Amino acid sequence: MPSGSFVLAADLGGTRIKLGVVDARGVRAHVTINAAARAGLTPQLDVIREALNALCARVGLNPRDAVGIGLGLPCLVDAEQGRVLSAIDKYPDAADVKLQPWVAKSWGIPLRLENDVCFAALGEHRFGAARGVDNAVIMTIGTGIGTAAIIGGDLLRGVHGQAGCLGGHMTVVVNGAECVCGNRGCLETEAASWALPRLVRRQPGYAKSALSDADTVSFPDVFDTAARGDTVARAVLDHCLACWSAGVVNLVHAYDPEIIVLGGGVLARQDIIVPHLQAYVARHAWTPWGTPRVVAAAEPNEAALLGVAAELLKGAEQ
Ligand SMILES: [Zn+2]
Q1: How many A from CA of 82 to the centre of ligand 1?
Q2: How close is the Cα of 168 to the center of ligand 1, in Å?
Q3: CA atoms of 188 and 144, how far apart (whole Å)
Q4: Contact criterion met (CB below 8 Å) for 112 and 71
Q5: Model confidence over 87-142: pLDDT tens digits?
Q6: Which of 126, 144, 165, 209 is deepest in the core (most CB within 10 A)?
């Protein structure tokens, strides 16, 4: 590829937006801003543009010289058509935002839209924990739960671009709580951070727990409080571990990966999560060839940004 080729990258999560200037050697400059995803994408566009321009200025680059920009969104995305197909609770206006004209006006460079976890999968496959492994699944646990699958070295897409992306909406509790997607008992309804207030409140005696301020409870709270012997926190944590375990076995049965890469902020406690899920997969997945490896992401904060470079600079290499 031409020396000096770089991309602009934006990873729009439910809580945070990560922005970066990335080249083949890695992330040259990055910044994280608050997402306020429920307020929509439109109010963030000016902020994103200004932040990316500032990042480029910091490293002496003109953003108009970028090979392109990659936007990863927690939505169903048709990457080939460059369209957001469906957004629910996060960036609910995303399907109606005219992103191509916004990019053309801002910088005059090509836009690549992708599901955020798909970009993270590409990043982990090219640079991270799935490097050299051509059949891999990624599951990121955060505000929601996102998944993506790499099959034979390529991102799995399916007929409508949504294959592999909906592991967070596989059923893990039949007749469980209603999810924003329309299904019931989805993995993310049962074990993502947005569900924690409900998971805490349904525990008997929660008002006497250290998690009684359920509205603000986070995964670090659950882990720390459980470690101090709080029975409510322990029950919530056990439930989440059981749901993540079931989710990973579902992914193994669906996609036949060699490796499952786990991402998201909750992996700060990979010392607990990874051995638990690895042992569950060893016991319960039907994989006569052996046991798929369960590992933490190598680039938990930057995988999606690196994935943008992996994808957009691939074209520049020829
Ligand atoms: Zn769902």
Answers
A1: 24
A2: 7
A3: 6
A4: yes
A5: 888 899 999 999 999 999 999 999 999 999 999 999 999 999 999 999 999 999 99
A6: 144
